[in-house]
Queue: 3 jobs
Job 1
Amino acid sequence: MGEDGQGEGASRRRAVRVKRVFMANNPETTVPCDVKDLNLADTGKRRIEWAFQSMPVLQNIRKQFIKGQPLAGVRIAACLHVTTETANLMVTLRDGGAEVRLCASNPLSTQDDVAASLVRDYSIPVFAIKGENNEVYYSHIMSALDHKPNITMDDGADLVTVLHTKRQELLPEVIGGTEETTTGVIRLKAMAKDGVLQYPIIAINDAATKHLFDNRYGTGQSTIDGILRATNCLLAGMNFVVAGYGWCGRGVAMRARGMGANVIITEVDPIKALEALMDGYRVMSMSEAAEIGDVFVTVTGDKAVIAKEHFEKLKNGAILCNSGHFNVEIDLEALAKMASSRRQTREFVEEFALRDGRRIYVLGEGRLINLAAAEGHPASVMDMSFANQALSVEYMVKNHSSLPKDCFPVPQDLDKQVARMKLESMGVKIDRLTLEQERYLSSWSEGT
Ligand code: NAI
């Protein structure tokens, strides 16, 4: 993707702390940022370009955006995983005329080289450092909000929550937002139900072209990737426990089975549990699974799914990780209390030595393992999720005044448009209904 580095707004030259950071690393840039090291930008740029090749739908949208400038003058504060795919979304929005600022949606998911390249090569302000502590994480959200956004783009609803609780003075300028993930959508719907949500938000996650593919195949593959990169363990023959058989859980289970693991599902929803059983998995309670599992992955969006009573039963050497949005699915506080010592055995692998002699391994501090230890979802699947993001922002800019202060799905025609564009990019043609079929499918008079 060719870059000219244009489009810096005066507002981008404000952040004080960042000024210090970029002056140390790259005195010639004036883009506000707090990134690890601008010298990492070369690698980041090559990786961003590599991902862009696998994002044909977003490429198409970018071309349309460059021509039509549908986001001219719109300020966007984005709180997303800072990955190569996100970088391409940011550039697409910017090329549609928006002024974009980006911060991380998880302390461990930032790719520092990508953050550096976005600042140096694309003049996009970024506030994100892999491994940042909670205080810095929230200060970065504040820096993104200092942009006085018209649109918020969130992944997990942390930015929206901070805006509604600590930065309410900014609310009058916000016209709408988007939310990327299941957990964020749940939080936003709860805000709408309590009557506190102050503007309309489109639930990107609820688009079929998002959760059917990103959550299932994306999380499925990249979670396995994260576990393998962190541990280099052999999955074949292992008892592999997946907690939660939703969109992500289905994907993780499917891919673990493909690697030869003996997959066990735990669920709280009887329908999902039955589905898992008939998909050919063993289904049992976490208490039972705890006794026999070798590897555990939580993908529920819930808290304390693996808790003290389960730790008590785990086999020596059991590996625990999470791919759900927040790091609350494994009760790490309880595990820490049970441990006599802790040490880092490999990058992203922490050993908890329990008083009874067992050793339990936790990957990536219980944070999203696919982003902590691997690179997140492959670009070709994020192509659809981020096409939904870009088209939804455009839709929001056009229609915000007639939309309710609620969290609702991507309009179906946009969802279908994304599917059509993806198929086209893959060279796949599908049939069309004939007029006769259309009539038949909408009538009741014809029978046997
Ligand atoms: P979903 O709603 O489709 O599935 C969650 C499943 O967990 C449901 O079937 C529910 O019944 C089950 N569940 C809830 N509490 C449970 C418990 N205590 N024990 C066992 N099962 C339980 O949600 P989806 O889309 O699969 O997302 C799951 C989580 O993954 C969310 O936090 C979401 O934000 C996150 N996510 C992570 C991604 C990643 O890159 N790692 C990508 C997309 C989503």
Job 2
Amino acid sequence: MNSGNLLLLGMGGTIAGLAGDPKKPMAYQAGQIPTQALLEGLGLEPDFGEIEVHQIANIDSRHMSEELLMQLAWAVKAGLERDDISGIVITHGTDTMEETGVFLHATLGKLASHYRKAVVLTGAMLPANAEHADGPSNLRAALYMAKESRETQQYGILAVMAGKPCLARDLSKQHTHALDALVVNARELDGPIHKRQADLNLPTQMVWPWIEIVTSHGGSSGRFVDMLTSQGVEGIVIAGTGQGSVHQALAQHLVLAAEAGIAVVRSSRTGAGAVFSEIPEPDSAWNWLSARDLTPAKARIALQLALLEANSRKTEDWQSIFATI
Ligand code: SIN
């Protein structure tokens, strides 16, 4: 095992949630228990080592904010840079864990690999007082993953849920209550994947680019796009049908939006699989970019980061930055 302590960063979520009646675990409130208390009764080996706990937030992750993402990222960065910390675990609500996962992967994944450390996200689908609560086994698995990263050589921003480890970038919640809801379609973990030479800069500003997700569906119109454009939206992620196809009425307005300089990214609302740039129409013809395997929610964060990076560095356009996330 690695020498060094682990850092446990708590964000809240169902893993820290409580049901009013433990026999009705679907009716609960997330973010009720302090992160420190989640360590009780985990049955870690006596020589497991110290776990330093920092409670960053205790929220239902549907309320995640850019400010909290930045606080979390700075805490992860500080932990990675400390010699006495050998790995980091983050407890997080599952509803937006995939967004936090892609954000941390893009901004700190290379740094984690550089320091040969794992940052492991985990959470739970059942509240802490449910009869078969999955939080303790998930947290235990995450702590061991972080602790044993030098032996397994699995570094970077990772995740584990329901006994299935994966890259945090590959998380996507695809079921409302299955215990493996986030990892059901994730690739097996066989080493971190980084397409970039370097991490993207951590945002420093409080206000990130305004990006909205617009869903294509039967009966779509472009009215919502026009509303957003007139209000100053900076980017639109299309949650397209099937392989990322878009209703023609909506498409017309999105082509105009792209012509007006709004960043348009095309993803699929199906929840799994990838969107390819030539299918069904070439993105280049319409000035859009395909989101590849990023879900709409993940593509939204990736686009924010790509726009921030392109604005700050001016040497690479947002399209080429987005393509490496
Ligand atoms: C949340 O995302 O905070 C609530 C849902 C969950 O953690 O499963």
Job 3
Amino acid sequence: MSKSKANIQNGSCPVYKKCGGCQLQNMTYPEQLAFKQKKVERLLKKYCAVKPIIGMENPYHYRNKVQAAFYTDRRGKIISGVYQSGTHHVVGIDSCQTEDETADRIIVAVRKLLPSFKLSTYNEDTGKGFLRHILVKRGFATNQVMLVLVTGTPVFPSKNNFVKAIVKQFPEITTIVQNINNQSTNLVLGNNQKVLYGKGYIEDILCGCKFRISPKSFYQINPVQTEVLYNTAIDYADLRGSETVLDAYCGIGTIGIVAASRGAGSVIGVELNPDAVRDAIVNAKTNELKNIRFFRGDAGEFMQEASQESEKPDIVFMDPPRAGSDEKFLSSLIKMSPERVVYISCNPETLARDLDFLTKHSKYSVKKIQPVDMFPHTSHVETVVLMSKVNTTK
Ligand code: SAH
């Protein structure tokens, strides 16, 4: 038997092939890290030496955000689990080696409660039925848990009793939100939501700062490695205390807030998602930081306007989504000409494309490259890159 086959058979996941989420499960963890190191080196070593990837001590159950899809099979049995990669077929699972174990237990408990409350599952073909998805987010540092029930209809029969029943089983649930999604869409969350229990958000602590997280706001899914990632990014920024910092694609403001708490002179954050910006503003207040402001909008457009103003940032953090940045952003960044750019990327392919543009069209060169394993067992890899102007040593 080949070594990889042995791993799957001895490994914990019976749906490895059907699910497709853990693309590297046939490798041991050290093999996975070597695979990711090579991938980053293949794409980026032409710019600068790639430091050894930082892996996890315990690479299991690291996901603080878990989603499950629901459906009822032909025999009337309710299934909850994940979509098979690239399809709308639900693979039934009760637990997953990457997911938070409390979240998995809550999903199973909700599934078991549905029949006694006569609640159906949503049928994507007919557009009828009730429960479509569940989203659970847990603050690993605070143990606050958010349960989001995504439903096809706004009507929620026996709502109060359902809430009571699930909170009784899981007292750690601090908030429950009903999100209504009756659209034919690949997006899990719809536009309307109602808070059924608690405050409608949870809090977590990262790098000593406290953050509020709403159902729709982006929050890094592996908090243990996020601290490693942010510490690396802040270290690369080499803050001295008087500089202006821009946190582009800032989400709920995490990187900028950590930078401000570690002595940045002043911080500006920009983010497209209005819920995330609202969270970011509250987060700055909660952490008693007065030297930080947030703007809602497209980062590229913001950069274009900001590059025409006289007060320019000394340091830019940029952490775009998988698609990477765009030319509007990158050419305005060049115009702005900050001392250092710290690029945090979850996709080395688009990172390589953007570094190519920056190094060809400006005086920036890549000084440091640090891969971090945020997503063990999957093929994804996160990378922090420090760029500064050619001829500077830092
Ligand atoms: N830095 C944050 C968020 C990174 S994820 C953190 O570490 O948590 C990328 C963020 O970019 C998401 O919050 C997403 O809503 C935002 N985003 C996507 N496209 C954008 C755009 N064109 N302009 C500004 N923000 C954008």
